[in-house]
Amino acid sequence: MEWETVIGLEIHAQLNTVSKIFSGAPTAYGAEPNRQACPVDLGMPGVLPVLNQGAVERAVMLGLAINAEITPRSVFARKNYFYPDLPKGYQISQFELPIVGLGHLDIELEDGTTKRIGVTRAHLEEDAGKSLHEGFEAMTGIDLNRAGTPLIEIVSEPELRSAKEAVAYMKKLHSLVRYLDICDGNMQEGSFRCDANVSIRPKGQAEFGTRAELKNLNSFRFVERAINFEVERQIDVIEGGGTVVQETRLYDPDRDETRSMRSKEEANDYRYFPDPDLLPLVVDSAFIETVREKLPELPDAKRARFVEQYGLSDYDAGVLTATREMGDFYEAVAAGCDAPKLAANWVMGEFSAALNRSEVELAEAPVNAEGLAGLLARIQDETISGKIAKEVFEAMWNGEGDADAVIEAKGLKQITDTGAIDAIIDEVMANNPQQLEQYRGGKDKLFGFFVGQVMKATQGKANPAQVNERLKAKLDA
Amino acid sequence: MAQETLSGWVRKLQAREISSRELTQLYLDRIERLDPQLNSFITVTADQALAQADAADARLAKGEESPLLGVPVAQKDIFCTEGVRTSCGSRMLDPFVSPYSATVVERMNAAGAVMLGKTNMDEFAMGSSNETSFYGPVRNPWDTERVPGGSSGGSAAAVGARLVPGATGTDTGGSIRQPAAFCGITGLKPTYGRVSRYGMIAFASSLDQGGPMAATAEDCGRMLNAMAGFDERDSTSVERPAEDFTAALDQDLKGLRIGLPTEFFGEAGLDERVRGVIDAAIEVLKGRGAEVREVGLPNSHLSVPAYYVVAPAECSSNLARFDGVRYGYRCENPEDLMDLYTRSRGEGFGDEVKRRIMVGTYVLSAGYYDAYYLKAQKVRRIIADDFRRAFEDVDVLLAPTTPELPFALGAKADPVSMYLSDIYTIAANLAGLPAMSLPAGEIDGLPVGLQLIGNYFDEARLLGVAHQYQQETDWHARVPAAFA
Q1: Vertex B383: Cα angle to B395 and A49 (nearest 5)
Q2: Given B129, B151, B300, B437, the catalytic residue
Q3: What is the ipTM of this complex?
Q4: What is the pLDDT of residues A168-219, one digit of tens each?
Q5: Inter-chain contact A273–B86, Cβ cutoff 8 Å?
Q6: Contact B373 A273 (CB under 8 A)
Q7: Which of A159, B157, B268, B297 fits as disulfide partner to B261, beta carbons 3.0 to 4.6 Å?
């Protein structure tokens, strides 16, 4: 039988507010345990939550970016369950009335087509603390620094049909929250996390199969691998005559498998009810408009503009707008050298390769936009060839100075003196009589051989266009 | 000496007729001598009180004026007090010393009040007799074999016996008014949102409201001036300009329209003698120019059932934080996490608290939520609508505070009969309206309370009506003989 995969993602993004969602304690990552938890975060008797306006603003920003309806009057609810790192015995979340309603996100499939994925809702909630199981000798340590960190949970419709689509959706959302600057997107630190609801059904069947919820998918790679494993597992179960049970499964990246955590029967009854400590959250159109004015140019719009303004291919524009930082970097380089296509090739080629090789972030790259633009300007004005530019770039990356300094120090300036080039061509022709005879006898392909010889003789410094032109003239003379 | 009211003491302190230290010592001595009969205090903070008194005397010497400067008060043990045990009447919080102070405590301190200690109460404010306290029952100063009411029974008994001139209370379903009535004092539950709930340990968040308890309406107004006001730490506190709650005390009652809710007089269970006291009080108010008419609150019979869904539901969630993990009571040698939870909570909470947690958990459960919690919330709206219609025709509602006299300790073993003692007080909480109780008579040496319910934010008017009544009568000035 042919099976169809059905996936819906729940993504938790930590909002990058300075203070917590319901208290004034700081949200910075990595402090000593329990040093960033005030009485409110600790769930002391008598404390009350006060909503952080910055979190609301960020949620609205996301809602506008995915063309969603912003709920004019949303409600915070209590999700009740006992856990040691949940200080109040309930999490403040949104249940029936989330701040962001139905929206959508367009993803690009491997075949180049675009698919629209519905976003069911996005709601604000507080994060829990952390349980620490190591170093406490049969006890558990509780760190409540993270308790109360603002989260937005973004729930997709079950419209993703493969692990690859799920990853494309997640990457798109990851890029978006960073564009909006509402989340730092750091997956190692858990700022951007994903749960996946996965089920299968016979192709053509309308109703959904029973789903499993996969947890602990903290990288794009894990999302893809966990879903693929889970799909295979469910197919095996059904084709082996069994039935898939609704349950929560944990992905184990070391073994590359998912394991049952708890079944539906063991699941908590969260006893949601509106939190009486918080008034309904009213977002009026004036507030929405002030947020809209703060919206940066979004990835899709920027991509379209790059195609239009710089004459780039849609693919290249997509690569260069994958992150806000990369887009800004590209634009600075393009402006600095006045050669947008050349800039695009270099940013995506040499520059990105160097970033990967050195494993550094864009912001920490040893060559900045101005430096790269300076190098490309030397290609433009024919001081150096593209080939020599790669050598100069290497030196710049290694901290040997800017483009001009490197060219000067290494004597890489291009030879553009026609007399000098002619002399070298004459020498090459004289040294290779046999090839000259064959060429003149009709073997055109040998033209490249002569170019190579001339470039070799000038250590690549001869202006390639001039070499071509002069060589052609002399060979055909 | 101890007959003097809180307002009287403030005037004497301002006139330098007595120092705050002398006054504080006077009441500390009374507590030491007389409270063993009542058990109205859980914690007495003598050293801290004297230090506060000295600070107040220094401010008085500089000629400073502040609403409560130098006057002794007591805090119900539901308000968090930094560095002082805050037990909420529960074994669960017996070891708990709060790291911060409630807004109410901060404000009263800033106004110059001297805290003598923390008063006894029903465990987590759940009870109407003060018998559910981990620290033992409080006794009624008018008859120590009887209950003082609850849950603010410690504050009511302490003020009734003049162990302190004024004390704070909290009222979720009548917990200020019913004990005020039982102990012969004046107590006010303000409009929901008037007084910050920050640092007031939550029982039922949408109903809880702190308020003053003292001998007179004037005292209550003076205390409320210090307690009330917007607090950015409480999202449900109401942002309104500051108000002087004593401003309307001297306003006469000519033309005041008083409504008598038929349903609060017709109910079976209203003691005829209580009814007689209320009728006499009505005559006094008429004599001062008030007009009296009957009004209907046709849905008031739904108050108690709705309350016993909403309040337990909220309490079941509010009390989840008492899990033995971070503070408070923790069982000995827990075997694992589940054992830690079940034994810490099983041993730390008393029966009435557990009963309400179970009811609340049930009514919020999947499949029952709509039938109970959601329906109860709708009932609240219907009850509020009844009041809204009534206040189109009248300025103030008048009724008995309780259907009966203070009952004997142990007399109400059945929880439902206990719940019914709040039958006249609960509706004001469900609607969020201000309401108060003031002493209006005596039967067999026991005080009887008169309840006034006002429209939203109409505390000043309520206090004015009560004050006018207290100009004509002396019930509020009576002190039980054993404590005179």
Answers
A1: 100
A2: B151
A3: 0.96
A4: 999 999 999 999 999 999 998 899 999 999 999 999 999 999 999 998 788 9
A5: no
A6: yes
A7: B297
